[in-house]
């Protein structure tokens, strides 16, 4: 079967929208499923509907990347978006043609730097995961390329500053799921510029000619559909190693000046983008409710025997557990209007039951400890602070996470894996929890200081291990219902 290229599509008589040639206007750090299933989809739609005519140069952020494979397909790939919009079922296949090329800075460092000479480029977009957007003091100006994403960006910005003689900078849209992503990135760039002694004029240029936007992205992207890929290749008549799947829903909240909306024609293309002076309310709502529900559901559902999100939500016990956790313990911690939050949660539960996408629990379980710390712990702490009692569903889910990790075969940081590999050395769960919950490297603080949290976690953990998840969850739900089934 032929690879996906412009020639393959022409030969097959493809009549859909394609932008084969266009100016590179965007640099994108990251070639992952999410950026391709969300940002590049938006750019492609703007190209078609509002004459944006932008091509995206994709920079591979780490040595193990897929820039070369992307070039084999001339940047093309097929995106499937499926789900409900109101009462309407959406099932769309789109060939995305906004990517001009992939650049591997490890083998094409000069091509990477040459991007800085292109005056057409106005935007830099990134999603390098939480692990990528970190300040790494070991990076230096002489590295080809510097290892971390913020250091690579600093190197590119410095090149731009030098080659344009302090001319036009960029609008930088960071999509990593960390707090204040744009601000963090700007601070990291300024820190590198100081460490590398790039001078005060460069730092002034960073401030005056570049806009670092914090953004919040929301779309469930399920990536390459391994089980159905062969069938899709046959249907399409070409082989596509970058097939991507996602829900239809999407929302991009960008904190930045009003005129961003004029510089990127989101509105004209009818895209769900909000430009605001404060993205935080959207962020807290999405991370606590949607990501919090995912992270809390995963260990409970996996131990119960489920494998995907939809089935878990449709499982009477787990569905009730997740809904109650969000409505009774997470929503009361979010400082926004209750109706707004309840409507958002209801829509999220609908999205979780999307009949067209199979979101694997195992995929979400990756790095669950840091996800729990960022996405669930804030609700737990705020709840305790506000009501002076423990949010029991959150505690039960935390106990489930530990039970799940004790079983092994986990994908998390080296330190977390090492901790659980040695779990057998503890005489009982009480001892294990002392060390685990007291580990500030895992949780950023000593969780034992939260009153009764350790004791209740141990009670649930013992029950889950002794009775199995199904029985322990049923007992838990019965207790919450004053002993009634
Ligand atoms: N998949 C979703 O539904 C979804 C939705 C919203 C946000 N996100 C966020 O987007 C991020 C990426 O998700 P994805 O589905 O595209 O994953 P992916 O594995 O397909 O892509 C990950 C990307 O990050 C880069 N990367 C990984 N480790 C890095 C490091 N240490 N330094 C620099 N770059 C690194 C990879 O090169 C790749 O480009 C995740 O962190 C996730 O939180 C995902
Ligand atoms: O992508 P992760 O692994 O950071 O988190 C798993 C999911 O919670 C996440 O991908 C959501 O589906 C997404 O954030 C929805 O916008």
From TrEMBL:
- Give the species this sequence originates from: Lentihominibacter hominis
Which GO molecular function annotations are given, in alphabetical order?
mannitol-1-phosphate 5-dehydrogenase activity; tagaturonate reductase activity
Alphabetical keyword list: Membrane, NAD, Oxidoreductase, Transmembrane, Transmembrane helix
Domain of life of the source: Bacteria
Ranges where the Mannitol dehydrogenase N-terminal domain occurs: 25-259
* Positions of the Mannitol dehydrogenase C-terminal domain: 280-463
Sequence intervals crossing the membrane: 384-405
Listed GO CC annotations: cytosol
Q: Which GO terms describe its biological process?
A: D-galacturonate catabolic process; mannitol catabolic process
Matches recorded under InterPro entries: 6-PGluconate_DH-like_C_sf, 6PGD_dom2, Mannitol_DH_C, Mannitol_DH_N, NAD(P)-bd_dom_sf
What does the record give as the reaction this protein catalyses? D-mannitol 1-phosphate + NAD(+) = beta-D-fructose 6-phosphate + NADH + H(+)
Q: What is this protein called?
A: Tagaturonate reductase
């Amino acid at each position: 079967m032929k690879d996906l290229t412009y020639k393959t599509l022409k030969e097959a008589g493809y009549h859909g929208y394609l932008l084969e040639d266009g100016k590179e206007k965007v640099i994108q750090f990251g070639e992952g499923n999410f950026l391709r299933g969300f940002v590049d989809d938006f750019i492609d739609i703007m190209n078609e509907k509002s004459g944006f005519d932008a091509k995206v140069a994709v920079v591979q952020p780490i040595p193990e990347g897929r820039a070369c494979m992307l070039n084999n397909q001339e940047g093309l790939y097929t995106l499937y978006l499926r789900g409900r919009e109101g009462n309407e079922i959406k099932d769309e296949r789109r060939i995305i043609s906004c990517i001009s090329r992939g650049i591997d800075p490890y083998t094409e460092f000069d091509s990477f730097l040459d991007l800085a000479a292109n005056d057409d480029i106005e935007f830099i977009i990134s999603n390098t995961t939480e692990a990528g957007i970190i300040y790494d003091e070991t990076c230096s100006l002489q590295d080809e390329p510097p290892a971390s994403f913020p250091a690579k960006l600093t190197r590119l910005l410095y090149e731009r500053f030098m080659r344009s003689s302090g001319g036009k900078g960029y609008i930088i849209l960071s999509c990593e799921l960390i707090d204040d992503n744009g601000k963090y990135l700007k601070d990291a760039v300024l820190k590198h510029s100081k460490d590398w002694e790039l001078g005060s004029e460069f730092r002034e240029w960073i401030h005056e000619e570049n806009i670092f936007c914090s953004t919040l992205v929301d779309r469930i992207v399920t990536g390459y559909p391994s089980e159905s890929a062969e069938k899709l290749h046959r249907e399409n008549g070409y082989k596509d190693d970058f097939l991507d799947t996602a829900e239809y829903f999407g929302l991009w909240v960008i904190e930045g000046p009003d005129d961003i909306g004029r510089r990127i024609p989101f509105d004209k293309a009818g895209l769900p983008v909000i430009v605001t002076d404060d993205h935080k309310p959207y962020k807290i709502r999405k991370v606590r409710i949607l990501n919090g529900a995912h992270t809390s559901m995963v260990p409970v559902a996996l131990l119960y025997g489920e494998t995907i999100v939809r089935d878990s939500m449709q499982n009477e016990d787990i569905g009730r557990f997740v809904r109650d956790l969000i409505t009774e313990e997470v929503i009361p911690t979010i400082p926004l209007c209750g109706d707004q939050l309840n409507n958002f949660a209801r829509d999220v539960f609908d999205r979780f039951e999307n009949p067209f996408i199979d979101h694997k629990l195992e995929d979400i379980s990756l790095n669950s400890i840091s996800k729990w710390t960022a996405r669930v712990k804030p609700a737990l702490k705020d709840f305790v602070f506000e009501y002076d009692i423990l949010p029991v569903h959150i505690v039960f889910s935390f106990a489930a996470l530990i039970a799940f990790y004790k079983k092994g075969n986990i994908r998390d940081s080296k330190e977390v894996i090492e901790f659980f590999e040695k779990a057998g050395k503890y005489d009982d769960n009480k001892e294990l929890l002392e060390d685990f919950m007291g580990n500030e490297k895992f949780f950023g603080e000593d969780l034992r200081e939260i009153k009764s949290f350790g004791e209740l976690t141990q009670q649930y953990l013992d029950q889950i291990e002794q009775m199995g998840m199904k029985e322990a969850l049923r007992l838990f739900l019965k207790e919450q219902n004053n002993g009634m089934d």
